Please model this.
Amino acid sequence: HTHTHTRSMAPSVKHERTLKGHEWNCSSVQFHPASSLLLSASWDRTIKVWDGEDGTLIRTIGRESHSAPITWAAWHPNGALIASTSADHTTCLWDANTGTRMRTLREHFGWVTKCSFAPDRTKLATSSWDKTVRLWDPNTGELLSTLRGHTKGVWSCAFYPVGHTSALLASCGEDTTARLWDTRTRKIALTLSGGHADAVNDIAWSADGSLIVTGSLDKTITLWDPKAGKVVRMFKGHEEAVKSVTFSSVERGGINMMATAGGYSAMLWNPKSTVNSLLSEIRDHEPGKEVESVTISHNAKLVATGGRDGVIHINSVPDFPKEEYFDFRKAPVQAETNARSSRLIEDRSKTLADSMAAFEQSSLPRSVGGDSQHNVPPPTSSLERPKINVKEAVLLSEWKDREKAESLGMRKVHMMDDSGRVHPLFTVPKGQQEVVEAQARPVASSGQVPAADNDEMTSF
Model:
């Protein structure tokens, strides 16, 4: 259920200030959990604390401590500590008020990419290129456990944000999957696979824990229902890899905003809107310099971005108009991630019976080899998106202008092939369209989802 967006007519964000001080790629920005203080980290090996309201630089921490670029910096839930992760394979903990280093955590043997404090403050999770997520006691620096399961480097991790249990942790990585861990048993509770065709760069929970968002090298953003382990919807807007995803911690005007950064822009979304999901697009950074990180302030009134140009931009967020919402669980079209059921997904429209008849006659290649008739080369890797030839149908992305498509008598349907991949398609009236070659995007895995232990998953 991929959504491709043009800029909507909603009120736009307003640029408030530009923060300059970092000498290299600003890899991380994060607003304080309860104030307008802004934390930034850079490949120049420094961490900076700013006043997000007036742009004052309050403190610079730590060129001495990390010997390589800093990849991420995070506030402790009470704002008293700061954790920083680095390409030097270490994580440092700092006193936020004095800038003094408290301790250095050294167990990873690869870049440490990101960290997340548990809401109950008893754990700090760190993700690394060494394929592991490690759990630490931030108060003592003790290594509590190591979570192994990703088959390649881990790009990001995020604790379940609700309540005082810190058992559930989400992570994502280069192996194209996201995973939910029960940190008590150190086991994978659920694998979210098939939502992306390439490395998953970042992961975040909605404030109430009911949704997870992932951003990928494949340029898309996927919204998941973590209880069901299913894709809820997909968003496409960035022209390059999506590097950073986050939710606001509070609703504003009935919207629990989602922010994403990728390519040369940051975007604000209303994840529950069926009409104008894209609320605003921010393009403040130097042309040709990617946006690396995005963060929303505790009251959802400010959004900050950090980029490869070393600069931080702060925008104020307007009151966006309210819209009709829909309940994901009752939505007529849902991308099923249960790959074992190879079936058509209903559009529940009157054209469904006609479109099914068309699809039953269509040729879906069963092999992974090339297709000489249509000059399709064989896949170069397991991540190669499969090519399908569909009679009387074109891929949705070819028809971004839905009104025009519908005026031609086209109707949107979803179809699942034998490998469990979902293809959003437009049917075409007979005689109007030759056989079309469409490049599909995987939406479901080949059934590597372990059965979730129901007792454990009730901890949501």
The helical segments are 352-360, 402-407, 454-457. The chain is about 5% helix and 40% strand. Confidence is low (pLDDT under 50) at residues 4-8, 324-400, 429-460.
